[in-house]
Specification:
alpha+beta, Creatine Kinase, Chain A, domain 2, binds adenosine-5'-diphosphate, Four Helix Bundle (Hemerythrin (Met), subunit A), 9-stranded mixed sheet, about 725 residues, Ubiquitin-like (UB roll), binds magnesium ion, globular, single chain
Length: about 725
């Protein structure tokens, strides 16, 4: 067994960076070259077809059949010019990854010949036997068909000689089975609601886009070491491993120089990403050893979501070229910082205004405050749903573990804006305001500086922080599909803006002047949402107590957090705006619960297997060698000398036995607990059982295995150790 670990280490030490050459020094020369974007469409489409696609993108209009045939033909010609031989609908099922089913462009004809074919019908819609994707009982077994349908707002692209067409994924009966379908609906909802509110301030606003800029954290580990750790390769995280003598205490990795092999990998995957039109811009080391981050320039939300999904895929593929594995898991190593995916979120208008960026005049600042306060109010009213949106078995390791924003939802505003809100709260009168009072208010609002970005005023412990011109949802897990949190955020803010408009209009209809009506409603929201605001240290014990006092939820585990998806409030919210039906929401809830159960189940199995077939046999072998040694000492020594010389070994023999005993006992108990959980038919009860009665064995089993790691001869330890996984370059 030791063979694997040392062989792996030898392999790692012999590695050299893979040579990467930039296609051109100017990114502009290859950016987006594998995308059927505006330029390619202009070149390949007739003017009529081009206009038809553009109006589908901009106004959501339908593309008729004749036009679809034209687009398909051009798309195929373009894809062929890029070397593509196959095409696939590319979609995002609820597993969290992307799915594709490749079809060749050619079709066999009579007489053993073939013709190249890709028409409008293949572009627009595809039937897929999708019974293997999670559907939460929506798709009956007798009707296993699902459909994928083209999303023209996200451009097609070529990767690995395949034309990929971004699509939604729905059941035969029309229910959403993916992330994109509800995401597009929430984007539409927010667009309409925000445009309506913008009309108070600027009649030129006719379209509001949600913008998303994600920051992706990840770990790199050498492929050989990864393959020598069955826990890493099967669960994405290490289930065992003693903390290294040197951890991240020195913080020398953060913003330090990036190791050469890693740099080569980054250059390579950045080139691929840029060719795919992903505007990747920054890269740096993260807090933990071998942890990194990359981030693009923000984009329209739907596109940004697709780009993040695509990037994760590209990273994994390119990493192999460099003999690396990318760990996107939220917590690959215990005791070492985990990985998140910050979702920077804002709204921008067709007039080029970022609605969460303060302006230069009282009027634009009032508009800014309107969107800002409505967002805070929406998060306040739907805090549990926000928590549900980031819940996963992986992310449970981070939330509340004093390294990532806690499971308690709160909003950080920064001192300046907190003061502005406090001032509005005290100065806005609920009765009629005098002209002087109104002027004073407007002057006050006008004083908000247009640059709020102040790096000293950053709170990295808040799950949802305002960072000058956007909100940053920091609690999202590194492997998550951004669409999950975006669906929730767009929906709750969209719904809130509609409420706001109704509230303001109600006052206006009672002859309150518009600005005063806006001020009064904003003041009401400030008061109502006060308890969600928190400027202090979100990692501290103090906050846990304070939050409890305020009545904020602190839901630590996924099976419980997910309940917010099927609360009456959420059901009504999603139904009201036709985002998801009750049936779809129940299905999703079930899928998430099942995913949770499966993850813990797999971890538990891998843990038991490793403990029984790797760890205990190694311990027994080493113990036998100690026993031999003791026997030998006894043979050659008199009793008095032996008493002195053999004590340590005897103690170790006993200690090893104790650890083996505990491990074996706990593994047996865990297997029994699993058996009991497996027969539970209710998805929620089963997930809770896995969480409370199976997962609870992980720590104790790990504790004893990690003790053995310290006791046993390094030569015979089978699994690469933390110091090797984390510090080999
Ligand atoms: P950091 O948080 O590392 O200090 P920045 O604040 O500059 O860096 O940006 C972080 C992320 O926020 C980037 O991915 C960027 O694209 C994104 N971002 C910046 N402005 C917006 C915006 N208006 N809407 C959405 N995302 C944005
Ligand atoms: Mg950030």
């Amino acid at each position: 067994m030791a063979f694997h670990r040392f062989k792996a280490l030898e392999t790692v030490l012999s590695r050299t960076p893979v040579e990467v050459t930039l296609p051109s020094n100017k990114v502009s020369e290859f950016f987006g070259e594998n995308v059927f974007g505006i330029d390619a469409m202009r070149e390949y489409l007739s003017e009529e077809a081009f206009n038809s696609v553009m109006s589908a993108i901009e106004q959501g209009s339908r593309i008729d059949r004749k036009m679809a045939d034209q687009v398909a033909a051009s798309m195929k010609a373009w894809a062929n010019s890029k070397g593509a031989t196959h095409y696939t609908h590319w979609f995002q099922p609820l597993t969290g990854t992307t799915a594709e089913k490749h079809d060749a462009f050619f079709e066999p004809t009579e007489g053993g010949r073939a013709i190249e074919r890709f028409g409008g019908s293949q572009l627009v819609q595809q039937e897929s036997d999708a019974s293997s994707f999670p559907n939460g009982g929506i798709r009956n077994t007798f009707e296993a068909r699902g459909y994928t349908a083209w999303d023209p707002t996200s451009p097609a692209f070529v990767i690995s000689k395949t034309l990929c067409i971004p699509t939604i994924f729905v059941s035969y009966t029309g229910e959403a089975l993916d992330f994109k379908t509800p995401l597009l609906k929430t984007l539409h909802l927010l667009d309409k609601a925000a445009v309506d509110v913008c009309q108070y301030f600027d009649k030129n606003v006719t379209k509001v886009n949600v913008t998303l800029g994600w920051e992706q954290e990840y770990f790199l580990v050498d492929e050989a070491l990864y393959n020598a750790r069955p826990d890493l390769s099967m669960t994405g995280r290490t289930l065992f491993g003693h903390a290294p003598a040197k951890g991240q205490q020195l913080e020398d990795h953060y913003f330090g120089s990036i190791p050469e092999r890693a740099t080569a990998f980054m250059r390579d995957f950045e080139i691929e990403s840029l060719k795919l039109g992903i505007p990747i811009k920054t890269r740096h080391n993260e807090v933990a050893p071998n942890q990194f981050e990359c981030a693009p320039v923000f984009e329209e939300c739907n596109l940004a979501v697709d780009h993040n999904q695509l990037l994760m895929d590209v990273m994994e593929k390119i990493a192999r070229r460099h003999n690396f594995c990318v760990l996107l898991h939220e917590k690959p190593y215990a005791g070492v910082n985990g990985s998140g995916k910050h979702n920077n979120w804002s709204m921008s208008t067709n007039t080029g205004k970022n609605l969460l960026s303060p302006g230069k005049t009282p009027k634009t600042n009032l508009q800014f405050l309107t969107f800002f306060i409505n967002t805070v109010k929406a998060v306040h009213d739907n805090a549990d749903l926000m928590r549900a949106a980031i819940a996963s078995a992986n992310n449970d390791h981070r939330l509340g573990a004093n390294e990532a924003p806690p499971a308690i939802m709160s909003v950080f505003l920064g001192t300046q804006l907190s003061n502005v809100l406090d001032e509005l709260e005290t100065k806005v009168k609920s009765g009629k305001m005098s002209p002087d009072e109104k002027t004073a208010l407007k002057l006050g609002v006008g004083k908000i500086p247009d640059i709020l970005l102040d790096n000293t005023d950053r709170n990295r412990t808040s799950p949802f922080a305002f960072t000058g011109n956007k909100f940053e949802f920091r609690a999202v897990g590194s492997s998550a599909n951004c669409a999950g949190p975006m669906i929730v955020l767009n929906a709750i803010v969209g719904d809130q803006l509609i409420q706001f408009k109704n509230d303001v209009d109600a006052l206006i209809s009672k002859n309150v002047d518009k600005d005063e009506a806006i001020f009064q409603i904003l003041r009401k929201y400030i008061v109502e949402s006060k308890k969600i605001r928190f400027e202090g240290n979100g990692y501290g014990e103090e906050w846990v107590k304070e939050a409890a006092k305020r009545g904020l939820s602190n839901i630590k585990t996924t099976p419980l957090a997910l309940s917010a998806f099927v609360s009456k409030q959420t059901m009504e919210l999603f139904e009201r705006h036709s985002i998801l039906t009750e049936r779809e929401q129940h299905a999703r809830h079930d899928i998430y619960l099942e995913t949770y159960t499966k993850k813990i189940q797999i971890e538990s199995r891998v843990m038991a297997d490793l403990a029984m077939s790797h760890i205990i046999p190694t311990a027994i072998k080493y113990q036998s060698s100690l026993i031999e040694n003791v026997k030998g000492l006894k043979d050659i020594m008199n009793e008095a000398d032996f008493k002195k010389a053999g004590q340590i070994q005897l103690g170790m023999i006993l200690e090893i036995s104790e650890h083996i005993n505990t491990i074996k006992t706990k593994v047996d108990q865990m297997i029994e607990a699993r058996k009991a959980a497996n027969v539970i038919t209710d998805a929620k009860k089963q997930a809770i059982d896995y969480c409370e009665k199976v997962k609870c064995f992980f720590d104790v089993i790990r504790y004893h295995v990690d003790k053995l790691e310290l006791l046993i001869d390094d030569e015979s330890w089978p699994l690469p150790k933390y110091r090797e996984l984390l510090f080999t370059k």
